[in-house]
Amino acid sequence: MQENNHLPPRDSDKARAVIKQFIQADRLHRQAVEATITAQTGLHRSQHMLLMRLAHCGIPSQKQLAKDLGVSPAAIAVSLKRLESDGYITKDADADDCRCNRISLTEKGRGVVAKTCTLFDCIDKAMVEGFDDAELEALLHGLARIEQNLQKLLSTQQQ
């Protein structure tokens, strides 16, 4: 299979090194977040994502949560059952539609969300330790350009 390479060889090597480093940093960030959250809260990634979503969107239905998170209603039901039995959420029938469950955080659920926000802050600080303002600004601009380039690529592929 022949590569379709539009960059000159030297730039291509540099670009690949940057992309490889970016992907590795992303993987390590995910691992750090997941390991920290699991160690500090006992929650798995999917459970934590549900709690964070609930903290930011009010009292959605089970169906809406599944849609928002891009998973099946069955998968949400399993996670919610566990979170409810552990005391993180409550499920109540919708006042207007008894077939619809509304999900809300309990005090315990709000507590774990607050704790994880603090954990995220610690991870964020560790990630940028040793960077000065100019380096952070340059990185911010570079990542914004990467995002714009990827959005442009996706938009041309979708046409």
In words, what does this structure look like?
The protein is globular and about 65 Å long. The protein folds into 2 domains: 20-127, Winged helix-like DNA-binding domain superfamily/Winged helix DNA-binding domain (Arc Repressor Mutant, subunit A); 132-159. It has 159 residues and is mainly alpha-helical. The longest helix has 33 residues, at 9-41. The protein has helices at residues 9-41, 45-57, 62-69, 73-85, 107-127, 133-157; strands at 89-93, 101-105. The model has no long low-confidence stretch (mean pLDDT 89). β1 and β2 (101-105) form a beta hairpin. A two-stranded antiparallel ribbon has the order 1-2.
State the gist of this model.
With 159 residues, the chain is mainly alpha-helical.
Short key terms for the protein model shown above:
159 residues, mainly alpha, Arc Repressor Mutant, subunit A, two-stranded antiparallel ribbon
